[in-house]
Write a structure and sequence with these properties.
Elements: H1 8-25, H2 31-51, H3 54-71, H4 81-99, H5 125-128, H6 132-143, H7 147-157, H8 163-170, H9 174-196
Helix pairs in contact: 1-2, 2-3, 2-4, 2-7, 3-4, 4-8, 6-9, 7-9
């Protein structure tokens, strides 16, 4: 099945991404610095969510941008540059955790991709964290999640990425991502209910 035609806005953004990538590859003055400024927050967000160590995150962000600079000629502009950069950042962080033998997901936490066709479970993260105490407990609970679930949750809720885009970044099937999100949100809700009696 052919992919849907891009909307005018998407086509414009992809064209701008291709232009920036071409300028970096051609070595135009200031082009790579513009790319770093545009995506350093995203890169830090992903790597920090994975490794949770500021010094490692700083070094890994530098490594990610070095890899981006070396391999940017491979970018074809068929997807947003943001997704391509995020994929490199995720790959660098994942490899770092593998070298340190840190599991990115709980092996005992088997996922059932048939769990939910959607990830909606009636639990509104944004609404339910309006209270300061709940917010504090929620962030502690998120920090306790395995790296993969923590990162998927961050990409979906904070970076507001679509499931398909997260799949492109992580290499996970869409059903697996939905299961991670559903089970992670369920776990967070249970933690909040146990600690402070937040309503279901």
């Amino acid at each position: 099945m052919p992919s849907p035609a891009p909307t005018p806005i998407t086509a414009h953004l992809l064209r701008a991404d291709r232009e920036l990538a071409s300028e970096v590859v051609a070595g135009e003055a200031g082009a790579f610095e513009r790319l770093v400024r545009r995506y350093q927050g995203l890169c830090w967000h992903i790597i920090d969510r994975m490794v949770r160590h500021p010094e490692d995150t700083r070094e890994l962000c530098q490594e990610a941008f070095l890899r981006i600079h070396r391999s940017l000629h491979q970018y074809r502009g068929e997807s947003p540059l943001k997704s391509w950069v995020a994929q490199v950042a995720y790959s660098v962080a994942k490899r770092h955790l593998e070298r340190k033998r840190i599991p990115i997901v709980e092996m005992s936490d088997e996922l059932d991709e048939r769990l939910e066709a959607t990830i909606s479970d009636g639990f509104d993260l944004e609404q339910d964290v309006s209270d300061e105490e709940i917010n504090m407990h929620l962030h502690r609970a998120i920090e306790a999640l395995p790296p993969l679930q923590r990162t998927v949750l961050t990409l979906y809720h904070l970076e507001e990425m679509q499931i398909a885009e997260i799949g492109q970044i992580t290499g996970l099937a869409e059903g697996t991502i939905k299961s991670h999100l559903f089970r992670t949100r369920k776990r967070l809700r249970e933690i909040l209910e146990a600690r402070i009696g937040a309503p279901a």
